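Before relying on records like the one below, remember that each one covers exactly one chain. Contacts with other chains, cofactors or solvent are not represented anywhere in the record.
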Amino acid sequence: MYFQLFADCIPVKGYNRSVICDLGRNKFNLIPNELTDFIEELKSKPFNSLLEDFCDDDKETILEYIEFLVNNEFGFFSEQNNNNSFPPLEAIFNWSGLISNSIVDVDALSSHNYERIFSELKEVNCTSVQIRFFSEQTIQNVQFILESALDRDFECIELVIEFSDELLSFFVNSEKVYPITSVQFFSCNPDKISDYIQEVNDSLIAFSFTPLKINNHEHCGLVDPSYFTSNLQLFMEGQKFNTCLNRKVSISANGEIKNCPSTTEVYGFINTTKLIDCIDRDDFKRYWTINKQSISICKDCEFRFVCTDCRAFIENPSDIYSKPLKCNYDPYSSTWLKTSNFPPFISS
């Protein structure tokens, strides 16, 4: 009997332990490195033959490993070695457009031409837009911006905005009018977050809430387990590309065209420079291929393919391959070293 992992269940080995990413179910489980090594051996040897190589005490552990894999539907037994019949997934990430995702920051002094911004994002085939509001917004202003984004074929529009009861009601009642996929509310009353979650429980929009006050672009780059994502696109993109900045373009609150609003390089201003002219520059793409395998410490981390990277805030600003500054995880001891100063959002 041979044991075969499903192709979309992929172990990722870290320095101290591993995770197995179930890319079909969008989840992951922590496993010991010994199990990852055992899975590798199972690719070429029958299970019963391999089991004979272990002493009685270790056999009990091996049987527990197999039970764990079967119960979680990570793999199956077969009479023959099916490696040829079930080849591994190819590590391929293809994107038809020049840009896949974007950020548009808005504050009290912003004077964006939203029609121009969304038109130029469509021109480079961008499908995902995150709009972050750093000042108090009226329903009328938010509605005006959303109207400008209609008919642009965006698959995903995310909003980060200060909480108000009026805006919450507006979004809930507008879920079929605008293509909003998620709303992240900040400055929420912590005692009422559970009530807000209950209120949006049946909404088509994914809502999340935090008591944190977000008033500028420096509140990004947080690495936290609540933000970890296991899916096929992120996993495959992470093999060769940066999981934050690959094919991203951003418009800062004052109109600067950047990779990310928090990075220092400015490639032009949206009111005078076309996005496509910036994106075509080689220096604009300098971050795109900095993947987790090339980043200090991250390359030894078991979470490297479920984690979104950050190059704007890094431990050593003179080393572009330095670990993200806002990551408090130590893969060499498998511990989170301290509590973050940036509490994550609580999702509905």
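The radius of gyration is 23 Å.
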